[in-house]
Amino acid sequence: MTRTFDVDHVVLDIEGTTSATGFVVGELYPYARKRFGRLLTERAAEPEVRRAVGQIRAMLGEPAADAARIERALGAWLDEDRKATPLKTLQGIVWAEGFASGELVSHFYPDVLPRLREWHAAGVRLHVYSSGSVAAQRAWFGHSPEGDLRPLAGEFYDTENAGPKLVAASYEAIAAGLGAAPGRVLFLSDRPGELDAARAAGWHTAGVRRPGEPYYESGVGDHPEVASFAELEIRTGTGAAPDGPVVGADEVRRAGARLAAEAARFAGFGWMRGTSGNLSVVLARDPLRLAVTASGRDKGELTEDDVVLVDGRGAAVAGTAGPVAGAGKPSAEAGLHARVVRLTGAGAVVHVHTVAAVAMGRRRPGGIVLRDLEMLKGLGVPAEGTAVRLPVIANSQDMDVLGDRLEEAREPRMPAVVVAGHGLYVWGEDLQQARHHAEVVQWLLELEVASGRE
Question: What is the pTM of this model?
């Protein structure tokens, strides 16, 4: 029986819904179990590992639990199939490495990927909400038997950034984050409790009931039931594919002129030498569209046509000609611009390569603490009595990895982050505020360099 839904967003569970729980339990759990000990001893100082260990100690009520005790607890939780956030975090780290090395390849039921591609092409926005960590979800979609599927998915949610899956408030938070009306979202899961929570938040729901899955015998309650994605038909009221034009060429050109002027200003400061650096400004929120300076162009000589329109993943939007022939392609870093916008709600992002940022990134790899400076008022921070930290994160050529590091280290009061050995990312409500923030942060970095303090 075909179930038809008129929605704009489809949120996907993974285990038991898109993919076999048996693969996760039989392949991924043993893989992680064998590697927890090494992770806990060799990488204990990494922020994500340290945070997860702290959460485990708190859950155990054992503040002094050592690595061996933590490893035993993780093993017990695996045996229970416990949905503990720190367990999922550490699993995600291990699995991401396994997928990246080629030792692991994810599993999808054969009815899933054709439907996901069909819905995506029709303009339906697809997202993921799973008890597995966001890092694990991205690795899962990034290393499928059919290659990298991450371009199909917009947002990834787990129990840490959205909340528990059996609580309606988590689904309310996701809808708010997507900027979606609850009645325009469909949730697909095999667990009746999750479906109940989503429906309580005003979402449409459908239970995916597959023979052999752990919740098959439980049924899906009074929710619409399907045995595969082939029985689902999604109609969206937008009628436009995600790559279809949502802003006009003239609007993109106007944004290009503004970005060119800002780039010339920063190039004049020596912050965007040659073709380095990139700037972006938001032109639409739903779906997200940004105008980004084109890659490979001299930033001191940009014109209104040296701009590319990109989507919420940083990919060039087809059909808008960038908006003109010859506009080039976006930098790979456009994906990080989009991530910053989705994370902070910013309206513009500035990425510059300054000597002071690189120097202080080397000098203070743990972050740069600033206090008692009048210039902090330019960032909305009191000039006296308050310290604020400018985060420093390790560089990566993988924008998903770099985005995860930025999200982990971000200080809400500081609209900037230093990427070690690379440069500076700064953002603001609009292009003018982003420029002002960049100038203030650079002044603070130059002061720290001049002070000579380690």
Answer: 0.52
